[in-house]
Inverse folding.
């Protein structure tokens, strides 16, 4: 496979992904804040979304930039997902399918390890970069309610919303011996479209009120990350690569960051028995410029592993969403906590005639409190498979398949059970920056 063609394809997709239509969805709580957060865990998903201490030479970890320093090859990753959500409120329920691309990423070490091997040089510093585009939040809901008041009339309410935000990411990571550090810089952008309609029965002289908000969001983000790897076994004399047990500690996070908004707001009043000439735009506000703040957050994790054999991990994350602010759409959000655990096992990565032995099997669990409501939480069981592919003249690549079975839960409100299926493609190429010598 020619990665020059992959690069051109990647650039094309960078400019087309953000222009694609938002997936059809009906997630009622996505109307709060900037929308429903999109999980940014890697293609090698399926073990609880672990990211703080995850570092793999053949996969990209977008969340902790310190992991880039571990990459041995140029890596192109693309992921997509589909979610089936079952919403339940009292005796009412509905089933909704939605899906989208989860990420596009291109990462590469700035020096090819093959050059060092041919020159018989042992390098101490490893440096890599990454560029990615990924959806950040999504908005999709369509809710209708009615309130019966015997002394007045029946009030009909309709709430609709679409849109969301995307993030363009550039990152770099450096590794020296067992220590790695990295930086992600992101530019996020998007449109938040919300509409509310209210009608009071068929009261003579009444009005059918429509409220529309269209908010454009722009801002910059950053993430600092670090990892430290401790080798627990001695390297055998005949080993060119360490294959023993290791303990990896990882952390990443950011402080509060600012964003700006530009809004258009309408209020339209339509008489109950109307003609087109009677529609009255009560208020119209165009180009309102305001500001907001994203919260500070951090994630800590630890991974215990044996190279090319198994890994076990545990992590904790916190986001101070009480510090969130948005002048264009003032709301109170709540601090969020997340715990996750996972495991991966490879029965025999070098098996020649038993493909099933080379598959990476993953399992995990996570629990998080959602910042959009005080008693809102999410938990899920995850299962994943890394299916290796050996392409001509290339390093091993992967098709990664994962499943999540979980629930969003609140007291005395809408509950959502979901099944998420994610498919990721990881293509590795060792010919980038390779210096060929002739003669």
């Amino acid at each position: 496979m020619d990665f020059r063609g992959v690069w051109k394809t990647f650039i094309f997709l960078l400019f087309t992904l953000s222009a694609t239509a938002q997936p059809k969805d009906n997630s009622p709580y996505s109307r709060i804040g900037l929308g429903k957060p999109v999980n940014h865990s890697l293609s090698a998903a399926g073990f609880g979304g672990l990211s703080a201490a995850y570092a793999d030479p053949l996969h990209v970890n977008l969340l902790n930039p310190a992991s880039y320093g571990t990459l041995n090859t140029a890596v192109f990753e693309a992921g997509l997902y589909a979610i089936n959500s079952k919403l339940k409120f009292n005796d009412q329920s509905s089933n909704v399918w939605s899906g989208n691309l989860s990420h596009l990423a291109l990462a590469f070490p700035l020096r090819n390890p093959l050059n060092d091997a041919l020159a018989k040089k042992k390098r101490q510093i490893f440096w890599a970069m990454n560029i990615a585009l990924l959806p950040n939040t999504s908005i999709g809901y369509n809710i209708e309610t009615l309130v019966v008041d015997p002394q007045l009339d029946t009030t009909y309410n309709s709430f609709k919303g679409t849109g969301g935000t995307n993030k363009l990411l550039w990152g770099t990571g450096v590794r020296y011996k067992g220590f790695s550090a990295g930086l992600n810089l992101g530019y996020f952008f998007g449109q938040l479209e919300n509409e509310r309609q209210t009608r009071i029965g068929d009261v003579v002289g009444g009005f059918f009120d429509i409220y529309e908000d269209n908010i454009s969001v722009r801002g910059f983000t950053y993430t600092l990350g670090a990892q430290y790897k401790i080798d627990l076994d001695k390297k055998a004399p005949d080993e060119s690569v360490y294959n023993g047990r290791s303990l990896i500690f990882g952390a990443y996070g950011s402080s509060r960051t600012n964003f700006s908004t530009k809004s258009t707001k309408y209020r339209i009043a339509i008489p109950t028995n109307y003609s087109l000439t009677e529609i009255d735009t009560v208020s119209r506000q165009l180009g309102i410029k305001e500001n907001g703040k994203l919260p500070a957050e951090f994630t800590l994790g630890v991974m215990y592993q044996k190279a090319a054999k198994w890994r076990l991990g545990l992590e904790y994350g916190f986001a101070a969403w009480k510090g969130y602010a948005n002048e264009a759409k003032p709301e109170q959000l709540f601090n969020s906590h997340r715990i996750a655990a996972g495991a991966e096992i490879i029965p025999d990565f070098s098996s020649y005639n038993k493909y099933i032995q080379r598959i990476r099997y993953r399992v995990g669990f996570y629990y998080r409190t959602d910042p959009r409501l005080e008693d809102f939480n999410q938990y899920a069981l995850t299962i994943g498979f890394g299916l290796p592919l050996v392409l001509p003249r290339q390093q091993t690549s992967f098709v990664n398949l994962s499943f999540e079975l979980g629930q969003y839960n609140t007291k005395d409100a809408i509950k959502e059970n979901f099944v998420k299926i994610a498919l990721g493609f990881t293509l590795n190429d060792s010919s980038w920056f390779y210096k060929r010598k002739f003669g």
User: Anything to note?
Assistant: Residues 399 and 425 are 5 Å apart (CA to CA).
